[in-house]
Amino acid sequence: MTILDRRDVLAGGLAVVVIAPAAQAQEKKPMYGLIGQMLAAPGKRDDLLAILGESTGDMPGCLSYVIAKDPANADALWITEVWTDKDAHAASLKLPAVQAAIAEARPIIAGFP
Fold this sequence. Notes:
Blueprint: E1 2-5, H1 6-27, E2 32-40, H2 45-54, E3 62-69, E4 76-83, H3 86-92, H4 96-105, E5 109-111
Parallel strand pairs: 1-3
Antiparallel strand pairs: 2-4, 2-5, 3-4
């Protein structure tokens, strides 16, 4: 797991846009990615970040999982995921560690804007 400032994530995202098409052309296989914001209950962002970070260590097919604190919102996180394919992401949601993290995090998740 990597924790970055949102500006670092955006800068890295621009690099991925430039690099990823060349990598995909070589492999001839599309990847699957997600970028989203998650809101924690007031004052619970660090707790949510810790829960998410603990569950992401061993997820088959996960090429990158970055959690960034939003500098403009003390309760927001940005999550950027890159997977080998959509099926690998779907399979990750069934892993026991991920299921446990979802159950633990649910009470402190305030929403997904």
